[in-house]
Amino acid sequence: MIGKVQSALGLILLLLACPHARSDAQTHAHAPAPSLQQVPAAELPPDARITLTLIKRGGPFPYRRDGAIFGNHERLLPVKPRAHYFEYTVRTPEARDRGARRIVAGRGTTGDVRTSGEYYYTADHYRSFRKIQE
User: Are 48 and 129 in contact (CB under 8 A)?
Assistant: First the structure.
């Protein structure tokens, strides 16, 4: 009986010490963002190119929520400190509201979304992103 208890305790200690034995939730909580597909700015929809130009000019923006902090809760973009990313609406002609399309701008190395060169496009309301190549 003592041998079985010792074996069980040994197995428990081994599992606790092994980083690969963590749950998926623990493993992915701090996982880096996956590599993103890229899209040339010239291939963006016309309304997205307009939004990108407005971001670089600092506005004026047509939607009240433009420039709001984007939390990156899904961690689809590279993990950065809070208030690194900001979201901007890309007009969707057939939508009755803001629609699903956005550009998310990061502060980049300049600290300013107007000049950062760090821009991401989503056509499906944050389910996927493509990094905009300029």
Answer: no
Both tokens of 13, joined, read: 């200690």
**Cα angle value 69/71/72 (rounded, 5°):** 130
Catalytic residue among 87, 94, 118, 134: 87
> How many CB atoms neighbour CB 65 within 10 A?
11
Domain positions in the chain are 1-31, 33-133
Q: Kindly name the residue from 28, 43, 74, 125 that is annotated as catalytic.
A: 125
Is there a catalytic annotation at residue 87? Answer: yes
61-111 residue pLDDT tens: 999 999 999 999 999 999 999 999 999 999 998 888 899 999 999 999 999
Chosen CATH of 33-133 out of 3.30.310.50, 3.30.450.40, 3.10.450.30, 3.30.70.260: 3.10.450.30
- Residue 28 appears among annotated catalytic residues: no
